[in-house]
Design a protein that fits this description.
By secondary structure, this protein is an alpha/beta fold. Strands 6-7-5-4-8-9-11-10 form an 8-stranded mixed β-sheet. Strands 1-2-3 form a 3-stranded antiparallel β-sheet, with no helix packed on it.
Length: 226
């Protein structure tokens, strides 16, 4: 499938798949979307330490921004990114995230993330560890080990199977009690799939160019003691 590098409206780059008319990030602003959906409405809810599962590692933008937050807040983060089709090295070289985030002193960290071996835990620094798993989403079988999930799969329009009840059951199982899942999506069919497996779902204001987004909680009900 043909791929092209484009610049989004906030100046940051992303990858576009013309055949699907689908981008790895919002064309209205890749960095703005990542900060709004995953940092403001996800990571900001948690204190030290935290384990994060990202569904769709892609260009590494979400991981890099999360690393910068870990440094800024002195927050210890164990990050796992799942990706079935890793981005090519030459495409990574065209991503301008360190420049646009005014974080050129950490550009080597972004490169280290992409050069690290797949399926192997790497200590990026004292505060941030990264495991990239080359894996299809339906193969995920983690159980109650993550605090937060960044659900950043391609959109429902082009890959509805990634937003199925089956996949969200795996997400629910992967989260610890009271864990949180955040995603840019806001379709009714997605909400119904989330709720069917037990999530409590709330609708929030979306990132630039998108009216709404979802945040889902793995709520745990305590049995009444007699």
């Amino acid at each position: 499938m043909k791929r092209e590098i484009i610049k989004t409206l906030d100046g940051s780059t992303t990858i576009r798949l013309p055949e699907w008319d689908e981008c790895y990030h919002s064309k209205h602003g890749a960095i703005q979307e990542a900060k709004h959906v995953f940092i403001k409405n996800g990571l900001s809810l948690f204190e030290n330490p935290i384990r994060i599962l990202e569904i769709g590692f892609g260009t590494g933008l979400n991981a890099f921004i999360t690393y910068l937050e870990a440094i800024r807040k002195n927050q210890k983060i164990d990050y796992v990114g799942v990706e079935a089709y890793p981005v090519d090295a030459d495409e990574i070289l065209e991503m301008n995230y360190a420049d646009e985030l005014e974080a050129l002193e950490f550009e080597n960290i972004f490169e280290k993330m992409h050069k690290s071996e797949w399926n192997e835990k790497i200590e990026i620094c004292d505060l941030f560890s990264l495991t990239k798993r080359k894996q299809f989403f339906h193969e995920i079988n983690d159980f109650e080990i993550f605090d937060l999930i960044y659900f950043d799969a391609f959109g429902y329009r082009v890959q509805p199977e990634l937003w199925s009840t089956e996949i969200f059951q795996k997400m629910y199982n992967s989260l610890k009690p009271n864990g949180v899942l955040v995603t840019y999506a806001a379709r009714g069919v997605v909400k119904r799939s989330m709720m069917e497996v037990g999530f409590t779902v709330e609708k929030l204001t979306g990132p630039p160019g998108k009216r709404e987004m979802f945040r889902a909680f793995k709520t745990v009900q305590m049995n009444n003691l007699e």
